Every structure is written in C-alpha cells, then in structure tokens.
Amino acid sequence: MEKTYNNKSIMTYILIIIGIIYIFPILLTFTNSLMSIGEIEENYSTEDGIFSDDDYKYIDMNIIPETVTFNQYRHIFLNTPTYINMFWNSVKLTFPILIGQLIVSSVVAYMFTVLRFKFKEILYFLYILVMLLPLQVTMVPNYIVADMLNIKDSYLAIIIPLIFNPFGVVLLRQYMKVFPYSYVEAAQMDGAGHLYIFTKLVLPMIKSGIVSLGILTFIDCWNIVDQAIVFIRESHRQPLSVFLSSINQGEIGVAFASSSFYAIPILLVFFYGQKYLEDGIQTAGLKG
Predict the structure, then answer these.
(1) Which residue ranges run through the membrane (predicted)?
(2) Which H, E and C letters describe the chain, residue by residue?
(3) The whole model's pTM is what?
(4) Number of folded domains in the chain?
(5) Which of 49-53, 69-73, 121-125 has the lowest mean pLDDT?
C-alpha cells in the first residue's frame, strides 16, 4: 500500500512539473503584455543582462510586471489596423470550416454507422488512411485540384479540403457506434425515415461528440499556417496566425500583446467546452 502511494505521489509531482512547463510560456506572454515598453526593453536587453560574456547573452525574465499597463493592447487596436484585419481574416476562414465540417462529418459518420451498403468498410478504411497522411502529403493534391478549379488563390482552396477532413468522420463514428442500434431499428419499424432518425435520435445523443469535434476543429483552423502560406499570396488576406510572425520581428511588447489576444478565443472555447471534450474522449473510447 505504501509503495503504491509513493508511486502515485511521484506521478503527481511529475505531472505538476510537466504542467508548469506547458503553462509557463503562456503565463509569461500574458504578464509581459501588461508591462510598459521601458520595462520590457530593460528585461529583454542583452547588453546589460545579469550574466553576459563575449560568446553568450542572457536576459532577465520577469513574470510580475512592476506597473500594469494596457498600452500594448491600445497600440495593436488603435495604431495597427492590419492586426484587426488579419483577425477578421482568421474568423472568415475558421467559421465556414467549423460549420461545414460539423455538418459533413455528422452526415457521413451516420452513413458509415447506420446505412448498409457494399464496400462500406473498405471506404471507411480509406478515410482512416487519408487521416493518417501528413499535411504536407495531402497539400500537393489539394494544390493541383485547386489549380484545376481556379481557386488556388482564394479562401476556398483552404476551406473546401478542411470541410471534408476525415478526422471528423472517424471521431463521430466512434460516438455513434456507442449509440444502441436497437433504437434505430425501433424507429424504422414505426415508419421513421433516416432524416428523422438522424436529427431526432442520433444528433441529441452525440452532443458531446459534436462539441468535442467543434473544439478541436476550431483550434486547428484558428492556427492555420501552412495552407495560408501556400494558397494565399496576398499578405493582407492572410490570417492572423501568419501575420504574428511579422509582428514578432518588431516591438517585443506589441508581440506579447498580439499573441495574448490571439490566444484568447482558443482559451475561451477550451474552458467552455472542457467538460464536453473530456466526456467525449471517454465515450469515443468505449467501443472501437
């Protein structure tokens, strides 16, 4: 008993240390965004660091600001209109993908779970295979198809492939497999069609799965970088995730504020749907 308790204590400490390592950059970014320009320049100046020599330079990292100020946020909202424009570019990319993927994934997952047709398992295996391919592999055929459709320099070149991302189908099918098929059979015996079964029986039962997919899709699409660089050539039409790299090359205080504000939507979505995400992951693993 004592050995088990010690093992649990060790694992707890290890998880706490890992958690601190992950949280520290986020905490540092947010607190530094509340510092004045002078304080940031003093902390991150390599000329007068607390340790320095000819080969290495060290900087001072302070988490708690001496004076809390919102001047960095005021600068990006009032003096950097490009930032707001890029923010709305991210919104225009993310929400069509989010809505489209939820609709397409739920319908296709229902088809793979309830309907009976030839070669269904082979087709589903191909979905899994495509899902496992790296982004760099699938981006090449996506670019070729976008060029054929004459949409390679538009948001559609990014939105359409991500709407049909097979990950959502695979995830929601796991939820639907937990759903008792006897309910579907009983509804069919009462004369219910697939539209009624899908909207009135299946969707309410997989609510946690839909929310989980929505959270994961939002986080993934909000952080789009590679697709935007490849398909969108005009810099003023690129999302904020790409624009942040150019902000980081300027004033470091503005970079902290920009990164903090950029992360707020992701944190809000995650904290709001954390319970659904945890329940969804547990439910999806009940039946393979």
Answers:
(1) 12-30, 93-115, 122-143, 155-172, 252-272
(2) CHHHHHHHHHHHHHHHHHHHHHHHHHHHHHHHCCCCHHHHHHHCCCCCCCCECCCCECCCCCCCCCCCCCHHHHHHHHHCHHHHHHHHHHHHHHHHHHHHHHHHHHHHHHHHHHCCCCCHHHHHHHHHHHHHCCHHHHHHHHHHHHHHCCCCCCCHHHHHHHHCCHHHHHHHHHHHHHCCHHHHHHHHHCCCCHHHHHHHHHHHHCHHHHHHHHHHHHHHHHCCCHHHHHHCCCHHHCCHHHHHHHHCCCCHHHHHHHHHHHHHHHHHHHHHHHHHHHHHHHHHCCCC
(3) 0.81
(4) 2
(5) 49-53
